[in-house]
Amino acid sequence: MAAAQFDRVADALELDQSIRDRCKWPKRIVTVTCPVQLDDGRVETFFGHRVQHHLSRGPTKGGLRYHPKVSIGEVAALAMWMNWKCALAGLPYGGGKGGITCDPTTMSYGEQERLTRRFTMEMIPFIGVETDVMAPDMGTNEQTMAWILDTYSTHAGYLVPGIVTGKPVGLQGTEGRTEATGRGVGFLVYRVLDRLGISSSHASAVIQGFGNVGRHAALTLAAYGVKVMGISDVKGAVWNESGIDVKALCRHVDLTGSVVGYAEAEAMDPEEMLLQECDALIPAAVERVINGENAGKLQCRVLAEAANGPTTPDADLILEERGDVFVIPDILCNAGGVIVSYFEWVQNLQRFNWSRSEVLTKLETKLQQSLERVIYTAEKRGMPFRMAATALGVEETAGAKGMRGLFP
Ligand SMILES: NC(=O)C1=CN([C@@H]2O[C@H](COP(=O)(O)OP(=O)(O)OC[C@H]3O[C@@H](n4cnc5c(N)ncnc54)[C@H](OP(=O)(O)O)[C@@H]3O)[C@@H](O)[C@H]2O)C=CC1
Ligand SMILES: O=C(O)CCC(=O)C(=O)O
Fold it and tell me: Which residues does the annotation say bind NAD(+) (predicted)?
């Protein structure tokens, strides 16, 4: 998917073959094996990957995913998307992404800690504050980042806060990072609804995924007055036509581990939930959920891609043909996370802390600028929004590579 999207943009930009190849292929792909002792005494070997797509514009930046379906191809695609995302937002980074093929939901706290520390040890030669900086993604969180920071810093002999972002505030993380991605999604949905003439107090939303991103997107939209009617996770979906009390649902999930069983809403088939009429549909979980099968049946006005890669290329063509769905592409929609990660890294480099309101104001300014650039480019060049956003990222990267020239 990532390669197909890139090729389409490269064709439209008529990129020269040499620069096209330099932009398309990752600079480095690292795979490591991590033997870890499980609680029952057995030793299991896990595969971990890190793909550093480009180093031309700065260190590579991107999350670390723990999921049973992690593969090197998925990580490479996510790293390429990170690249265009960082360039579009004007961050001085290339894209990177990592993943370990594991199921954190079946692993104890201790097993996850040992796996994370072993992966970090294996990665020490390839990461650094100026080379590659990780952050949370699916299946990882600020505790994971704290273990990486500790393992790396112990090796260095001093605290290296800038080695990861999305770490706890008490370890020089930044205010606002935990909620940044979902909050950014909520902000962009609000801005786009406003542009379409839909007042947030009359708008409705449906959200797939209630992890870090889905939860904070729901809370942010609810705070704007948007009625959140449907929410799903791996186990199922819940629906309330009059609007779900998102804070109450958060309490239910914190107690039970799932949205399923929430008393103030009805159970619904998660696939059916995606097809319900709403103003904003927000996939905030895994890839390829909007596809050739369901794209023609969506009844939303805005498709806000909080997840990475939720829409397949064939679904893109169907949505373009329809022309009635405003797609906020992933590399714009979920950029709030990496933008605040960048703020965290800058604060770490400066040994200076910003206030929460400073972080969140700067976040909204950057997202607003990116949204305007994408809309302007799409209109000026007659491109769909995903193509326009990707084109801006690719041009930025190609420009930097061109200026740096080729080593003889
Ligand atoms: N965290 C971040 O800052 C950023 C994340 N993203 C992207 O956002 C997406 C979500 O990440 P994040 O919230 O961090 O991950 P989390 O691990 O915190 O949450 C993932 C959520 O998705 C749910 N889920 C997983 N598979 C499915 C499925 N097949 N159907 C419905 N729900 C499902 C999980 O359900 P359950 O709870 O039941 O397991 C969980 O609620 C990913 O695509 C990630 O790459 C993008 C930018 C930044
Ligand atoms: O915060 C970051 O550095 C990266 C977040 C991420 O993985 C993403 O945007 O997909």
Answer: 181, 212
